[in-house]
Design a protein that fits this description.
The chain has 666 residues and is an alpha+beta fold. Among the domains are: 128 residues, Up-down Bundle (Glutathione S-transferase Yfyf (Class Pi), Chain A, domain 2); 62 residues, no CATH class; 184 residues, Collagenase (Catalytic Domain). 53% of the residues lie in helices and 8% in strands. β5 and β6 form a beta hairpin. α21 packs across α24 and α22 runs antiparallel to α23. The chain is globular. InterPro entries: MetalloPept_cat_dom_sf, Neurolysin/TOP_dom2, Neurolysin/TOP_N, Pept_M3A_M3B, Pept_M3A_M3B_dom. One of its GO terms (molecular function) is metal ion binding.
């Protein structure tokens, strides 16, 4: 029985201190530095792939560095000790700096180029050949082939500092707006506890989502919503010049890198993406905007009709403004797809999680076996040994931690998966097995349906990490193209909208009543309400990101932001002095620069994979097995486009995506 088997690898220990984090990080970095120095000193005769001292050794060095430091950098997310969290953050900074410096080493890059000339594809496996090509590409993209790196290093340092300042402004923003109780008519009392009451009937409201978003959604007075919107939209105006500087620095870096340089930052970023040219990205965004325009117009007109019913100003305003959208979107949902009772009463968190692990364990052929008595970072954390079914004697997949009620997570229901230790092949045979963790802030009393959707998505990322089986750690699990990485998780969200699944994961409420079919129907019906407007918003954000990373720096960013909003997302901003909403588009400085389109591309791929593989039967274990073998198991060892095409037995189609959304194309 799997339950009685002992995993071939022990889970991490979680007893580090500030001092041990510092020492372990320093040791790991020193070991990796020593390896690189030894490789750089190799003679030409020793520079072949099979040598313990080159490409394979470089890959192993990466893996050992990740394995040694993964738990150390993870503490910042979960440790109750602030000093330990700070030490973990510093360790991450030190590792990042080391990686950047290592990637630019010209001596290593020159040896790589020499070695490549002496190797043919026939000598290597597909993954080994991909490793060699990718290491060479990474070196070129890092500037290792430049005669002088001085200007590049200066620009990259400055860009990092500017992005850090922009993000710091986000974190430290403390603006506020004053409203009277009368102006806040319609906002439920439950939200008022988050506001500061400065005198009788006067409230001070910060620009934090928990404080100001209820105004957008519930305030009955249009002027109140507008004032709140204008204040919120302008709260980070201080980022205007900083963002323009960051965009300019990226343009300059792109020109320096490569041979003879990249035309734009989008050329640089998309080189390693699934959609690998700017023209393809532009075409994808443009075609989807066209295909969704009809549905978006219908959605907008539905909200406008509701506005006519509710607002009695004379003369009547026949325009749907941005400060109207959340308010009428909520009202439309309540009117057309009302939820008659609280679904949370039927979804006890522990029960839901156990059933989801069981459902997808059966679908993908894995067992989650609880492990007790092992140290974790919190007594609430659950540890599982995960085993592949029917894969011979040594069928261990890895370890999975579930931290479902983490008090450090800043937002309700925020959840994400971290790869603590990657999987890879060991030189003498055998494997280093992956260790992954889901950290969330679910309610102990029960899960909202949004929480269930979130858990399904994140469990998809967990499976991507656990069921990947690559030779090299750099290709493990979610180490795939950035415009594909979210797709497996997004695909798993579909199970949260299946009536049979909802019945399986629900438990009786306190009165013993089972989840009624009417409530299931109401939940499912709410899924794609105003779907056109939702996705058009994603497209306008992706288009803005694309344009600002392909232009010459002369574009008026505020004007562009507001024009794209109206022309693509179909919701109007009627303001004499357009507001700098782009300064709050945090993705531009948080790793999604020139790649925000990847959100939509992942939605698109997820819909294609679900409809093709599971649309007829979401419990089809044969389709689940195919998904593991063709998509999850290879990780990044093959091009994402090839993985998806093999699973779909053809190309992804926009028609399949639109059909999945229930959208009719004009």
């Amino acid at each position: 029985m799997t339950e009685s088997k002992t995993p071939p690898q022990s889970p991490p220990t979680w007893s580090d201190t500030v001092d041990s984090i510092k020492k372990s990080t320093a040791k790991a970095l020193t070991n990796h530095q020593d390896l690189l120095d030894r490789i750089a000193a190799l003679s030409a005769s020793a520079q072949d792939f099979s040598s313990v001292s080159y490409f394979a050794a470089l890959a192993l060095g990466e893996a050992e560095l990740d394995t040694a430091t993964g738990p150390l950098t993870f503490y910042q997310r979960v440790s109750a000790d602030e000093n330990v969290r700070n030490a973990s953050r510093q360790a991450e900074k030190d590792i990042k700096k080391h990686r950047e410096e290592s990637s630019r080493r010209q001596d290593i890059f020159q040896i790589q180029q020499t070695v490549q000339k002496n190797i043919s594809p026939q000598e290597l496996s597909e993954e080994q050949w991909r490793l060699m090509k990718r290491m060479l590409l990474d070196g070129a993209r890092a500037g290792a082939g430049l005669k002088s790196q001085d200007e590049l290093i200066k620009l990259e340092k400055s860009l990092s500092e500017v992005c850090s300042e922009i993000n710091g402004n986000f974190d430290n923003e403390s603006g506020e707006i004053i409203f009277t109780a009368k102006e806040l008519d319609g906002v439920p009392d439950a939200f008022k506890q988050n506001w500061e009451k400065i005198s009788d009937g006067i409230y001070k409201i910060k620009h934090k989502p928990l404080e100001i978003f209820p105004i957008f959604e519930y305030a009955n007075i249009p002027v109140t919503r507008r004032r709140a919107f204008e204040s919120y939209e302008s709260r980070l105006k201080t980022n205007e010049d900083l963002l323009r500087t960051a965009l300019d620095q990226r343009r300059r870096i792109a020109k320096i890198l490569g041979s003879p340089g990249y035309d734009t930052w989008v050329d640089y970023v998309t080189q390693v993406m699934m959609v690998n040219t700017p023209d393809k990205v532009k075409g994808f965004l443009s075609q989807l905007a066209t295909d969704l325009a009809k549905q978006g117009t219908t959605d907008r007109d539905n909200l406008l009709a509701l506005k006519r019913e509710n607002e009695t100003e004379d003369p009547r305003d026949e325009t749907l403004y941005l400060w109207d959208f959340r308010y009428y979107d909520r009202k439309y949902m309540n009117k057309n797809t009302p939820i008659s009772e609280n679904p949370q009463d039927y979804f006890q968190t522990e029960f839901v999680v156990a059933r989801i692990l069981e459902i997808h364990g059966d679908l993908l052929g894995v067992n989650f076996v609880p492990i007790s008595g092992k140290e974790t970072w919190n007594s609430d954390v659950k540890l599982f040994a995960v085993w592949n079914r029917n894969e011979g004697e040594d069928n261990f997949a890895g370890y999975c931690y579930l931290d479902l009620y983490n008090a450090l997570e800043p937002e309700p229901s925020h959840a994400s998966v971290s790869t603590i230790i990657p999987g890879y092949s060991l030189p003498g045979g055998g494997r280093n097995y992956p260790v992954v963790a889901l950290v969330a802030k679910f309610s102990r009393s029960g899960m909202r349906h949004n929480d269930i959707v979130t858990f399904f998505r994140e469990i998809g990322h967990i499976f991507h990490d656990l069921l990947s089986c690559t030779e090299f750690s750099r290709f493990h699990g979610t180490s795939v193209a950035g415009d594909f990485v979210r797709a497996p998780g997004m695909m798993f969200e579909n199970w949260a909208w299946n009536s049979d699944v909802l019945k399986k994961i629900s438990n009786p409420d306190k009165s013993g009543k089972r989840l009624p079919d009417t409530l299931i129907d109401q939940i499912i019906a709410s899924r794609y309400v105003n779907v056109g407007l939702f996705y058009l918003r994603q497209l306008y954000l992706g288009t803005f990101d694309f344009i600002v990373h392909t232009d010459d720096g002369t574009t008026d960013l505020t004007k562009l932001w507001n024009e794209l909003r109206e022309t693509i997302s179909l919701v109007k901003v009627e303001i004499n002095n357009p507001l700098p909403g782009h300064t709050q588009f945090r993705h531009l400085t948080r790793g999604y620069d020139a790649a925000y389109y990847g959100h939509m591309h992942s939605f698109f791929l997820a819909a294609n994979m679900f409809e093709t593989g599971f649309g007829g039967n979401p419990f089809d274990s044969k389709a689940g097995s195919n998904f593991v073998e063709l998509v999850l198991k290879p990780g990044g060892s093959r091009e994402a486009a090839a993985l998806v095409k093999d699973f779909l037995k053809g190309d992804s189609k926009l028609e399949t995506f639109l059909k999945h959304l229930g959208v009719q194309v004009a």
